[in-house]
Amino acid sequence: xxxxxxxxxxxxxxxxxxxxxxxxxxxxxxxxxxxxxxxxxxxxxxxxxxxxxxxxxxxxxxxxxxxxxxxxxxxxxxxxxxxxxxxxxxxxxxxxxxxxxxxxxxxxxxxxxxxxxxxxxxxxxxxxxxxxxxxxxxxxxxxxxxxxxxxxxxxxxxxxxxxxxxxxxxxxxxxxxxxxxxxxxxxxxxxxxxxxxxxxxxxxxxxxxxxxxxxxxxxxxxxxxxxxxxxxxxxxxxxxxxxxxxxxxxxxxxxxxxxxxxxxxxxxxxxxxxxxxxxxxxxxxxxxxxxxxxxxxxxxxxxxxxxxxxxxxxxxxxxxxxxxxxxxxxxxxxxxxxxxxxxxxxxxxxxxxxxxxxxxxxxxxxxxxxxxxxxx
Length: 376
What we know:
Elements: E1 2-7, H1 13-25, E2 30-36, E3 50-54, H2 60-67, H3 70-83, E4 87-90, H4 95-100, E5 109-112, H5 124-140, E6 143-146, H6 149-157, E7 165-167, E8 189-193, H7 202-215, E9 220-224, H8 230-239, E10 245-248, H9 254-262, E11 266-269, H10 279-285, E12 290-293, E13 308-311, H11 316-327, H12 330-347, H13 350-375
Parallel strand pairs: 1-2, 1-4, 2-3, 4-5, 5-6, 6-7, 8-9, 8-11, 9-10, 11-12, 12-13
Helix pairs in contact: 1-13, 7-8, 7-11, 10-12
């Protein structure tokens, strides 16, 4: 099958997601990737895929200028027509893709919506930008892929046909394990990893800290990710508990991710809302149990009591109790970590994800062919 993937935005986890999907698909298919220049790195991609680089600057102002430049869409359309794929797949949303779709109606189109509902605290300009993109792509898409059944149900409430929505789990991220070092030892640390955003519920983890350290005195809490950390720093200061926290308020390079997960005993996601996450698959790849809140489809990746614990959102007491249980029970923690690693091998491998994705491609190609025959 001749497949084109398109990614113009999304560094970090999104870069990894698109590249790992492309690498798996390209084992038995012809895959080309139209990719923003600033997102390309040889470390992500196999040499089986054809990389088509296009200018999509990381600067928001420059990106907006190109958005209103007709030449941008002419170039994109020309590349697609030259490649003439059997199916186009945008593994993440971007306005440029939405804008070009009306001119490429003959190509079956698949979109992946990682976060069908907008996160708490998102800026108004981003909200308008994403909402407009989704308005266009949801109408035009022949299929929409989401990472959980709760997300599918959410889209149905927004008027999207259930037949159009396909649930495929988020793939594993064992990619980071290549930077693991044997000399890094596990400590009684809790890791909260990823960009600092309002919807992550970090304040509830901070509230839980006194209860955690009362029951597990050697516990430390690592918070690692870029974003505005000022209000959380203020909350930590009010507790007079700074020594418990280890803060890495910056974008974490791939090469440093492994060390953070290796030295942590448990990974926590105290989200107050959200859709899905790549953090749980990373934790599983390092054989770490997780404690997550029951929001979006995040809990669908966790087997309660087997790979981790699921607690209600905004409940610092329940969060603390689950974390204490894992910190103070080495045998349980080790068993859950191994179960998580088994889970990614069986259910979240990229070969499995690619096979499921190919089934979606085949379905939309078949439906598109019937539609074109019917119109003729």
